[in-house]
Amino acid sequence: MTAQHDGRPVTVMVVDDHPMWRDAVARDLAEAGFDVVATAGDGPQAVRRAKAAGPDVLVLDLNLPGLPGVEVCKEVLADRPELRVLVLSASGEHADVLEAVKSGATGYLLKSASTEELLDAVGRTAAGDPVFTPGLAGLVLGEYRRLAGEPTPTAADRPAAPQLTERETEVLRLVAKGLSYKQIAERLVISHRTVQNHVQNTLGKLQLHNRVELVRYAIERGLDDA
Hints:
This protein is of the alpha/beta class. Helix content is 50%, strand content 14%. It has ten helices and eight strands.
């Protein structure tokens, strides 16, 4: 996986309260061609530095002093919704995974992952793909379905759904089924970037901010069963 994003190195920030672990991850990323623009060791520091450094990807531990990782995720994304968050945690507890996803994280990797898996995950996260430790993706999709079954408070205030093109609807349907952008590109015989463009256009039309909201929108309309 290339460490490029729009022709420049992918910028990454690493947040972990263990200095040796944090430095090791930052060093591995830098050696692989990523541009590590900041690191932080506690929650409040992470929020401040993420807002200042504006990385493409935030590699975030959940267990942080001062402010939990999920709160860091929410605060940073409220300020910069385009940021991608990859949680790197020692916990594979389902409750932790789901809370991270609900707070806006686009991926969740266990700390038992190899360096190669981490580098691949950061690259794929930068490209907009959801990355989950094997076994967790199904859990997350199940949670999307459960969320979609709950009434959305703003549904009554929302204007009529904008018109999506046939291709945008097709891409949206595959996103809702849990396919990665790479898998969608292969299935539709189009480029990865074209898939990303369709998703970005769809997000803009629907006034949504991230893939989590997009999947929820699709499932609410039954597109995952189509």
